[in-house]
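Quick one, T. Sequence first:
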Amino acid sequence: MNKAKGFHLDRVNSDIMRCVSNTILYKLQNPDVYGVSVVGAETHEGFAFTEIFVSVLDKENQNKILNALRNCATFIRREVANNVALKRTPEIRFSIDKGQNNYSRVDELLNQIKKSSAGE
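Structure tokens:
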């Protein structure tokens, strides 16, 4: 992939991420979608689909919230089509961002190491 294409996809990802985030925050009228932060977007070449990575505060109801988001994907895609200048609007897919879980686990392990080092 050349630099121009990469830059274009980065801009598209940023625009889609901003639109999806605003749609979830201000336009979505689904009570099952709460405590959601959009943390990333990855549009695949050809604009077939965009993977939206979300972080959910309520870990116990994470799957329920993710399913509710998936049920709202058509509405969210329509909002992207109306607000982001693209020739073809990609299908919207939602996934839980694993990076946040990994960050929390690494932080927990570092704290354990720090405590065990202080105890010696």
